[in-house]
Cellulose synthase-like protein E1
Amino acid sequence: MAKEADRFSSAHEGDREPLFATRRRTGGLIAFRFFAASVFGCICCIWLYRVVEPLEKDENRTGFFRLIWLVMLILEIWFGLYWLVVQSLRWNPVWRSTFTDRLSRRYGDDLPRLDVFVCTADPVIEPPLMVVNTVLSVMALDYPPEKLAVYLSDDGGSQLTFYALAEAAEFAKTWVPFCKKFDVEPRSPGAYFSSKSNVLDSAAAAEVAELYREMATRIETATKLRRVPEEALFKYGEGFSQWDSDATQRNHATILQILIDGRKDNTIAIPTLVYLSREKRPEHHHHYKAGSMNALLRVSSKITCGRIILNLDCDMYANNSKSALEALCILLDEKEGKEIAFVQFPQFYDNLTRNDLYGSMMRVIADVEFNGLDGNGGPLYIGTGCFHRRDVICGRKYGEEEQSDEIVEAEKTKSLASCIYEKGSEWGKEMGVKYGCPVEDVITGLAIQCRGWKSAYLTPKKEAFLGVAPTNLHQMLVQQKRWSEGDFQILLSEYSPVWYAQGKISFGLILGYCCYCLWAPSSVPVLLYSLLTSLCLFKGIPLFPKVWSSWFIPFGYVTLAVNAYSLAEFLWCGGTLRGWWNEQRMWLYRRTSSFLFGFMDTILKKFGVSESAFVITAKVAEEEAAERYEKEVMEFGVESPMFLLLGTLGMLNLFCFAAAVMRLMMNSREAGGDVQKMGMQFVITGLLVVINWPLYEGMLLRKDKGKMPRTVTVKAFVLALSACTCIALS
Ligand SMILES: O=c1ccn([C@@H]2O[C@H](COP(=O)(O)OP(=O)(O)O[C@H]3O[C@H](CO)[C@@H](O)[C@H](O)[C@H]3O)[C@@H](O)[C@H]2O)c(=O)[nH]1
Ligand SMILES: [Mn+2]
């Protein structure tokens, strides 16, 4: 391998054309900076208002009122500073483009080995048919098959998944050559055959489609019956014999089976395919996905030892067969590419509806913010759709020599995936993917960047990978809780971007990390601000300047400018107006439930009270729920503390707004004054009510199974009503 590395770096000395280009924005950027400066100027005015205004003589201003005023000042300082931090993501964006033709000219098929790691963990919420579609899509990537290997890590230790993979191995012999011969896209057979428009109209295609359908039926039937057919147990006996009779998901020996060995069998041009289920024992922590990634790193090093590693979640199929070549344009570039440790593609989904009810796409993050991060040193590693250099993820520092990894085939390969292998080693610490954090990906990427490496972000026109977004509110909130909690833990950990990364990565990138690491704590100010605004409206206490006073200008300008900009940005990124509105709702819900719970759990964890776990996101929904998802009807359905909180806050807003409107109508003489004094509060609380409309519908009007459970509605109602009563009487 040492020689091979040499070959890649120096043999093409004469050929100096870069393999990728980096584009920066110029014109628009200056306009943006002016705009940002104007907003910041107004933010300063708001702070000034809070400081200066209470000094005015006003007999109504009691001690309690001053306290509220102080809280408002603190919250506005937080929002202002957070806004500043977020600008780092827009200050210096870059876009990368690649020259795959130059890559082909220079290297032909002489490319480094590529190992693809696909992780799955549960055959029920991650259906084996979906998993093998992902596997098949990467096996058919535009890449020399003898250089490509696909590893499936099954944390579910499921015979069903193994069975599906064994079936896929057979089907691959037809599918891979078919894709290459006819250059089909996308290369997930499920996605390809379900898209009516691009399926070839030929006998060959019809034959492959039939084969696929037969395989899919077999896999789905087995999954439904939760039983592998008898003849398959026999046919793939070597694999199935590795399951002990008492094996369970959490307690079993290592299962390792090379289903296709591309190293030996050169007659069929199909990539190597390996199934791995690492050993699990109840007394050993398995470290979730990070644990399986590290087991994969070790086991694959003894089988194919790809110099490049692509990591995919089991639902992210390859939608663009050129993605590996595109990533290599960056990693093999002789000049700038040398300092780049990993190439991240965005997470896109193929199950989104038009207006993206749950804001799953995170359009602006993918199309704006990550380019901003790239300009400051590189995007975060987000766990899927990411090409790594093996030796870097294993711990190599920037500037160190790449080590040669000899493939010595040993009988002991299996032991590399045992529970005790990592005891007393650096795995999970300085080597491989890090343990102990719910976002193992982000912290690992940060550590790599702190070792001197950069990363790059690639967004080809045709999305490289497509996954499955959560299709109900609860799942979405749970996923967001895990992310916010994990990112906040990073902020408090020894790898904190604020302390540890100081001097190791650029200041802009530190701020970039902070945007996400501060998600969890940002819940508290949003909660307080919205509560204070509506409760004070209810009590008739004005919190903002009068509508006609000049102090109102900065408030009005900041509110309008920030929201108009966010809307424009959303539309530029291809979103719809409705989609933006939905995203604003999710912005609020995430903060007042997911992030808040993530924040509290992190604090509790610091005191050793709770343990954070990795709750896997389901990738299937039952039929009726799926229909509601298609129609963009918000799905509640389950009892959850997060819903109770959202419901209570929603009701509280409604009561406060209703009470204030009633007061307006009853004494219409003072109405004008009331509106003037509290115009801004009316608007904010009113908007909160409007944005909560799907919530009220779910609580009060709907009858289907996806409505808010009755118990939650009643509890929320009682809680909100008692809160209002207490406040009214106080
Ligand atoms: O014990 C576990 C738990 C999960 N997984 C796999 O990890 C992947 C991601 O899990 P998912 O439930 O889909 O979580 P998401 O929130 O969608 O995942 C995002 O966020 C995670 C960190 O929170 C990253 O690990 C993922 O790569 C990233 O896509 C899936 O393929 C799982 O099968 C395992 O292999 N073992
Ligand atoms: Mn996922």
Q: What stands out?
A: The chain has a mean pLDDT of 93. The CA atoms of residues 342 and 388 lie 4 Å apart.
